[in-house]
Structure formats: C-alpha cells, structure tokens
Amino acid sequence: MSDVERHPASELGETMKTAGETAVRARAGARTFNPEVNSDVNALKGMTVPELATTFRKLYGEPTHSRNRQYLIKRLTWRIQELAYGGLSQGALVLISKHGDMLPEGWRMRLAAKPPAESPERDPRLPPVGTNLQRVFDGVTHQVQVCTDDFVYQGKRFKSLSAVARRIAGTPWNGFLFFGLGKGGTQ
C-alpha cells in the first residue's frame, strides 16, 4: 500500500441533485487519508493555551480573541483539515446559500453585520474633548475633564465615565446618568 492510504469511509460517496445537475457530495470520508493531518491534530491536545494561540496566528493569519482551550483545539483542527483536504464542498456552499435565510435571526444579523471600523466612532453622548464636567455629590463639587480616549479626575486617568462615577459614589453607576449626559452630550 502507498504511504497515502484510502480512508475506509471513502467507499460511501453519495450523489445529490442540485438545480438539475448531479454532483458528487464531498465528504471527509471521500478524500484520501493523510497520516500527517492526524498527527498534527493529535499534537494540538498536548499544547498549552499560549502555544495554541501561536498556532492559531500561524494558520489563520490573525490573533485569536479566545483563551478557551477546547474552542481553540476545535478551530485549529478544522483549519488543519481544511488546508489538507479543502474547505466546504460546492454542494455544502449551495445548501448554505439556499437555506441560509432559515438561520435564527441573531445568527443572520451577525453574519450580515459589517466588520468594525478601524477607529470606532466617538459616543455622541460625550461632550467635546477638553470639556470639564461637574457634579455635586454629597455636598462636594467634582470636576472631570473629557480627553480623547479617557477622562481625568483628581489627576488620575479613567477609561470610562462609569469608572469615575464609581470612584466618586462608591457604588456602580452609569457614568452618563451620573453626570447628566443625554443625547448629544448635553447636561
């Protein structure tokens, strides 16, 4: 037998009808078995999360935002097999496009969503950069300066108005409500 063996399930190839044409259904079992793929997939199980993240970057060309080990193993297993055997078959892609509107609404919205812009827009409720916000709380006047990416209160920088409000009140607050900011940054 050659160094590339036929997978036992390769004899199970099926055909399906699509738009009046007969197409061979591409299945993982219908492809030739590659022992290197199996060893690469098994190697993932022994990797640490940082090693999986590095492998993810190599195979996908972008960093992962997940540190869930099982999720990374599943995604990497798919990618290794996709690179070795090819992606989804034409038949699968036809079925996805045909039945894609039957997906739950949340999934459709995520698939149709535009990728986030390089620089997210500034929240319209925020006043212009350089504005000083004032709030009297427990008889004390507190001032916060609005900066480009953060806020300055008592010489310390805070990522959000809610963090400033929490520092002042000692309890969680919505920063916009705490400082009386409505639509368009009005107080």
Number of domains: 2
Low-pLDDT runs: 1-29
Shape: elongated
In percent, how helical is the residue content? Answer: 25-40%
Order of helices and strands: EEHHHHHEEEEHH
* Chain-averaged pLDDT: 78
Describe this protein's structure.
There is one protein chain. By secondary structure, the protein is α+β, with helices and mostly antiparallel strands. It folds into two domains: 8-112, no CATH class; 132-185, no CATH class. Helices cover 37% and strands 14% of the residues. It has seven helices and six strands. It has helices at residues 35-44, 49-60, 69-85, 90-99, 105-112, 161-169, 175-178; strands spanning 15-18, 21-24, 132-137, 140-146, 151-153, 156-158. The strands form two sheets. The protein has a four-stranded antiparallel sheet, with helices on one face. A two-stranded antiparallel ribbon has the order 1-2. A hairpin with a 2-residue loop joins β1 and β2. α1 packs antiparallel against α3 and α2 runs parallel beside α3. The longest helix has 17 residues, at 69-85. It is elongated and about 75 Å long. The model is unreliable at 1-29 (pLDDT under 50).
